[in-house]
Write a structure and sequence with these properties.
CATH topology: Yope Regulator, Chain: A
Number of domains: 1
Keywords: Autophagy, Protein transport, Transport, Ubl conjugation pathway
InterPro entries: Atg3/Atg10
Structural class: alpha+beta
Protein name: Autophagocytosis associated protein, active-site domain
GO molecular function: ubiquitin-like protein transferase activity
Pfam families: Autophagy_act_C
Largest sheet: 6 strands, antiparallel
Number of strands: 8
Strand order of the largest sheet: 2-3-4-5-7-6
Length: about 160
């Protein structure tokens, strides 16, 4: 996916994300927006979970996740940065701590280096590429969060005949 394709598809992807983002625990999207910075769009989304996300939250209290989706011009792929409860101590084999290149704040970043290899077997482009990419990112770092596709009224009514 190149920068132009990312930017062309991003607004529609963000709308789908806002509408179809689901979690196993009660969740609210409290802040979400798309902005442009030096010609490249990025998405900021803030989620609040009424109960904890699992093992990381032994007290089962409210938790927040901040996610920023942007485009990495070096790797030429989308990239996910996130924080849990304003912390960046979410270590895994898929992540590292980095300063977000646009927001200039510390975030955990999902490694972008293998994204192209992971996505290259697909022939998807634009929004469909971004949806699959996001689903794979969530599987690696937040399996409790998923993007559920909606069925159109025509598809549902067509199946009932």
């Amino acid at each position: 996916m190149n920068d132009a394709s990312f930017n062309e598809s991003f607004e529609q992807f963000a709308e789908i994300l806002f509408a179809d983002l689901h979690a196993k625990q009660p969740m609210n999207i409290t802040n979400a927006y798309v902005k442009q910075y030096y010609g490249s769009k990025y998405l900021y989304i803030h989620l609040i979970f009424e109960t904890g996300l699992g093992a990381r939250d032994s007290e089962n209290k409210e938790q927040t996740i901040e996610m920023v989706i942007s485009y990495d011009r070096f790797y030429q792929v989308p990239v996910l940065h996130f924080r849990v409860d304003d912390k960046v101590d979410y270590a895994s084999q898929y992540t590292a701590i980095d300063i977000h290149p646009i927001l200039q704040a510390p975030y955990v970043v999902v490694h972008a280096c293998e994204t192209e290899n992971m996505m290259s077997p697909t022939n998807l482009h634009g929004v469909e590429y971004l949806k699959l990419w996001f689903a794979l990112q969530m599987t690696m770092v937040f399996p409790q969060i998923e993007l559920r596709g909606r069925q159109s009224a025509e598809t549902i009514s067509g199946r009932s005949n």
